[in-house]
Specification:
The protein is α/β, with parallel strands linked by helices. The chain has helices at 2-10, 49-54, 113-124, 136-147, 163-166, 168-180, 223-227, 273-287, 349-360; strands at 16-20, 57-61, 65-69, 74-77, 82-84, 88-90, 94-96, 129-132, 152-155, 183-186, 191-195, 198-201, 206-208, 211-214, 218-220, 232-233, 236-239, 250-252, 257-261, 266-268, 299-304, 307-313, 320-326, 329-336, 339-346. It has nine helices and 25 strands. The strands form eight sheets. It has a five-stranded antiparallel sheet with strand order 21-22-25-24-23, with helices on both faces. The chain has a four-stranded parallel sheet with strand order 10-9-8-14. Strands 16-17-19-20 form a four-stranded mixed sheet, with no helix packed on it. Helix 1 (2-10) runs parallel beside helix 8 (273-287). It is globular. The structure holds flavin-adenine dinucleotide. Flavin-adenine dinucleotide (FAD) binds next to strand 1, helix 8 and strand 21.
């Protein structure tokens, strides 16, 4: 959407077409595991159907692209239809990592609006829920389910939630937030099987789960690019700071892209909403022949009940972390080679803003 909107704003008359396998009108994904699942808000469409008509952006939903024909500059759908392009933006996102345990199909994923509808309906009549995975979406979804009055247990292989991303100390604070929101957290535990409504654990115990949520992470989907022979690395489409892939007039943006960030001076993995939109904007500008580079520091927020964690930084990988408690929140600084490389805050916006500036300028944190 971001690439299409940007291109359209620069070229009012060149045809723009969006092909998506999702049957729904394009929507905001972050609220799905927050306000939508908590029953506090409806689906948030990015634009009304009329917007597409007024801006002459052709939106074709429920259609899956099978492959890209680079030689003829066409994309080919599963039904064999061919769509020509001058410029092509690949923004195919990521898909939930499937659980590889017996009964995995009983666990509900949460990636699309359709997934969220099914989960919300299931929660309405559930007496118990189990969330598998202690990542961002797992934490948000578990808090929502608990807020609906469904006794909810989160099971994670890590000792504390969000540990891989944010470390032990931050994870302990998040475990407390979950517990304050009525979620029971079972760490250092793996699920071995799901039979009927019972979730079996490696400890030998079993949990009741009328609703079981699979929140064990996502994996980018670069298969269209790989099949077309584009450069990929670590399961992502390699692009430069202008979102150009290795093929002429083909760009990639969002979760599927491994983009060069000029401020970081290297390629950065960023699987967040705001960064996907920013990269889409740059891809749209590049396709329109306008200068633009990716230079912003990635970041996102995560809302667990009433608590909103804010992160800004270069992502996974740091040498030291330092947690500072505040009266109703905390700040965690992440450092590498003497530079501040990330910050996580809860109710500490001043720290967040200062750290954001320091991360951008590759400066150390003096505390
Ligand atoms: C429940 C949930 C909550 C989230 N919360 C947050 C948050 O709080 N903050 C945050 O920063 N990020 C959050 N995220 C992550 C954020 O939504 C993603 O980073 C963002 O959506 C990535 O955008 P994208 O365009 O790269 O991919 P996606 O939004 O995944 O879109 C990919 C699109 O490509 C389509 N597609 C894929 N393959 C094909 C094909 N072969 N043919 C046709 N169409 C295809 C898909 O149908 C989909 O429409 C959340 C994600 C989810 C699922």
């Amino acid at each position: 959407m971001s690439a299409a909107e940007t291109f359209r704003s620069k070229h009012p008359h060149i045809p723009v077409r969006i092909l998506t396998s999702d049957p729904a009108l394009p929507y905001a994904k972050p609220p799905l595991s927050k306000g939508y699942l908590c029953d506090r808000e409806a689906k948030i469409d990015l634009h009304s159907p009329g917007w597409f008509v007024r801006h002459d952006v052709e939106l074709i939903r429920g259609i899956t692209v099978d492959h890209i024909d680079l030689a003829h500059q066409e994309v080919v759908t599963e039904g064999g239809r061919r769509y020509p392009y001058w410029h092509l933006v690949l923004a195919c996102g990521a898909f939930p990592v499937p659980l590889s345990i017996p009964g995995a199909e009983a666990a509900l994923p949460l990636r699309s609006f359709a997934d969220a509808v099914i989960l919300r309906m299931a929660a309405r009549s559930a007496d118990s829920a189990v969330v598998i995975g202690g990542g961002l979406i797992g934490c948000e979804a578990a808090a929502c389910l608990a807020s609906r009055g469904v006794p909810t247990t989160m099971v994670a292989a890590e000792p504390v939630p969000l540990q891989r991303r944010f470390g032990d100390e931050a994870g302990e604070r998040v475990a407390k937030i979950l517990s304050d929101n009525g979620v029971r957290f079972l760490g250092s535990t793996t699920v071995t099987a799901i039979y009927d409504t019972h979730v079996h654990l490696d400890t030998g115990a079993a949990l009741d789960g009328d609703v079981v949520v699979s929140a064990s992470g996502v994996r980018p989907d670069p298969h269209l690019a790989e099949a077309a022979g584009l450069d990929t690395y670590d399961g992502r489409i390699v692009v430069n700071e202008r979102m150009h892939t290795s093929a002429l007039n083909v760009y990639a943006a969002g979760d599927v892209a491994l983009a060069y960030n000029v401020t970081a001076g290297r390629r950065i993995r960023a699987e967040h909403w705001r960064d996907a939109a920013q990269q889409g904007l740059i891809a749209g500008l590049s396709a329109a022949g306008q200068p633009a580079v990716w230079d912003t520091v990635p970041g996102f927020s995560c809302t667990i009940g009433e608590s909103t964690l804010k992160y800004r930084g270069w992502g996974l990988g740091y040498e030291h972390s330092r947690l500072v408690d505040h009266h109703n929140g905390f700040t965690v600084y992440y450092e590498s080679c003497g530079d501040l490389v990330g910050v996580l805050t809860l109710n500490a916006d001043d720290d967040y803003r200062l750290a954001d500036r320091l991360i951008r300028s590759h400066a150390p944190m003096m505390i």
